[in-house]
User: Which sequence fits this backbone?
């Protein structure tokens, strides 16, 4: 039996391997959030042709929807969802007859609520560590 | 022994969001997830295409375009050009705006623009002349508020297109009548009217508008049997126009199906001008433009289910000779006054001339006068016949603006 002294085990902290699919993975991760933001841009584009006060409401609503997916990572889930609801519901109610705004709002909610909820759950431990 | 690759050093990390380990086989869950994301992407991109069209068609405010600016600033323009700014807002056939104004400091000459005729739909030029008479009325109404008195000469020379000369004299005082103030609020209302009847006093006030216009009388159809009989004739006339390809084509030529066409031409009929609900109109402008035949069927359906069904009363201007140019001009003045007076009284007003359009079409083609005989029988006014007709009632919603060419385009 050999008695070769064993080397003391040194915990090595190696840099994380650079994943070839990193960009693809990021795109995948952000894709649905990106769709929600795109819907927010639609609101802004539509609002630009409206009467001043509706246009104002529409632009603010659109900005909230654009920001909601990213905000969901940094804020508690309720706040992220609040942004999304505030960016969709009032504008859709005021312009209910336009068809397209309520459709955009429904899509933003349908995609955005799960996205923001999931991100908030994922980000919660990170927030606690900070 | 099965080895979990993810536990091996150097194994690709499992993407938190993805159910599929990097570089490994794709799981069923991953496929479903990717499929769902793909469908959502297609739906969002498709919604974007509709949203872009909605923005281009100004679905949130149809009147934001420059084609509607003349309705907003017509009272601000002083002098003779300000009078023209009021004249271009008058009622006219199919919103063709068939006018040209020659303006100087002491007179305005009003000419017909022959390039803006509606062809087989106005086979004998009756409606165009009536429309010019309406513009003339607004010119006269707009003189007082700008400190002018007018001297009007109708058909001043042998040039048939030269409709009127309006001489301008400083009066020293500015006075605006109720009819003048209603010019910017006057819109044809093609939407539904409420079942409530129009009060007798309101009809009397309308009738009084004809008092100083010689040769013109008003025949009212207010009782249910009268309205039903005239309504049925209007539906038959609408059907005949739809069946007549020449009239259908010439009418459709003045339909502006997109915001781009409205801004380019600033005339004609539009989806918004049909006075449907906001919801239905939004759907109409978001969908692809309708064909001529679809537009015809829509008009026919509206005539049956809205225009005739909800009319509280019909009015017909009757004359001895509807072919006389002077009579047509005065008839145009009267129809504009009636429309403005109805506006002052909060009444909806829609010009409905399909019967006379058929009468003139039949005459121009040498066909038997089917509609002429039926209309005369309903009018029951010996020696008199119809010049133009309209319906009134309490509107469910206000009439919408029609596009207008600015003063600079017509003077």
Assistant:
């Amino acid at each position: 039996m050999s008695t070769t002294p064993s080397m003391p085990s040194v915990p090595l902290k190696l840099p994380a391997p650079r994943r070839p699919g990193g960009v693809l993975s990021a795109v995948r991760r952000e894709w649905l959030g990106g769709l929600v933001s795109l819907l927010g841009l639609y609101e802004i584009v539509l609002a630009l042709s409206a009467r001043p006060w509706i246009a104002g409401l529409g632009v603010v609503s659109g900005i909230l929807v654009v920001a909601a997916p990213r905000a969901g990572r940094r804020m508690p889930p309720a706040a992220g969802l609040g942004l999304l609801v505030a960016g969709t519901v009032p504008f859709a109610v005021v312009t209910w007859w336009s068809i397209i705004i309520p459709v955009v709002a429904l899509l933003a909610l349908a995609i955005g609520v799960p996205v923001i909820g999931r991100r908030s759950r994922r980000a919660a431990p990170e927030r606690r560590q900070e | 022994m099965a080895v979990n690759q993810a536990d091996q050093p150097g194994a690709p990390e499992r993407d938190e969001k993805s159910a599929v380990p990097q570089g490994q086989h794709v799981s069923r869950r991953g496929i479903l997830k990717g499929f769902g994301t793909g469908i959502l992407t297609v739906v969002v991109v498709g919604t974007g295409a509709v949203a872009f069209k909605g923005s281009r068609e100004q679905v949130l405010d149809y009147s934001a375009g420059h084609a509607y600016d003349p309705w907003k600033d017509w009272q601000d323009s002083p002098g003779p050009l300000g009078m023209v700014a009021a004249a271009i807002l008058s009622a006219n056939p199919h919103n063709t705006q068939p006018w040209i104004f020659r303006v100087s400091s002491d007179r305005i000459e009003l000419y017909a623009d022959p390039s803006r005729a509606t062809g087989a739909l106005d086979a004998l030029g009756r409606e165009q002349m009536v429309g010019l008479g309406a513009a003339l009325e607004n010119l006269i109404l707009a003189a007082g508020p700008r400190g002018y008195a007018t001297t009007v000469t109708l058909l001043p020379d042998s040039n048939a297109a030269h409709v009127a000369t309006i001489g301008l004299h400083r009066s020293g005082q500015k006075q605006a009548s109720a009819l003048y103030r209603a010019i910017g609020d006057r819109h044809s209302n093609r939407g539904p009217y409420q079942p409530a009847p129009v009060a007798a006093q309101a009809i009397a006030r309308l009738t009084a508008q004809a008092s100083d216009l010689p040769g013109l009388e008003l025949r009212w159809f207010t009782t249910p049997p009268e309205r039903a009989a005239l309504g049925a004739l209007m539906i038959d006339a609408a059907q005949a126009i739809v069946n007549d390809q020449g009239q259908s084509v010439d009418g459709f030529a003045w339909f502006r199906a997109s915001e781009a066409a409205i801004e380019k031409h600033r005339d004609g009929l539009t989806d918004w001008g049909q006075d449907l609900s906001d919801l239905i109109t939004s759907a109409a402008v978001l969908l692809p433009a309708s064909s001529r035949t679809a537009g015809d069927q829509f008009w026919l359906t509206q005539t049956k289910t809205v225009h005739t069904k909800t009319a509280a009363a019909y009015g017909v201007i009757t004359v001895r000779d509807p072919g006389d140019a002077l009579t047509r001009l005065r008839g145009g003045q009267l129809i504009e006054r009636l429309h403005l007076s109805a506006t002052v009284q909060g009444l909806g007003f829609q010009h409905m001339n399909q019967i006379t359009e058929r009468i003139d079409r039949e005459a121009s083609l040498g066909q038997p006068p089917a509609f002429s005989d039926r209309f005369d029988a309903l009018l029951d006014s010996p020696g008199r016949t119809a010049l133009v007709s309209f319906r009134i009632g309490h509107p469910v919603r206000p009439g919408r603006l029609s596009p207008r060419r600015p003063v600079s385009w017509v003077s």
Remarks:
- The first helix of chain B runs from residue 28 to 56.
- The first strand of chain B starts at residue 99 and ends at 103.
- Chain B touches chain A through 32 residues (CB under 8 Å).
- The two ends of chain B are 94 Å apart (CA to CA).
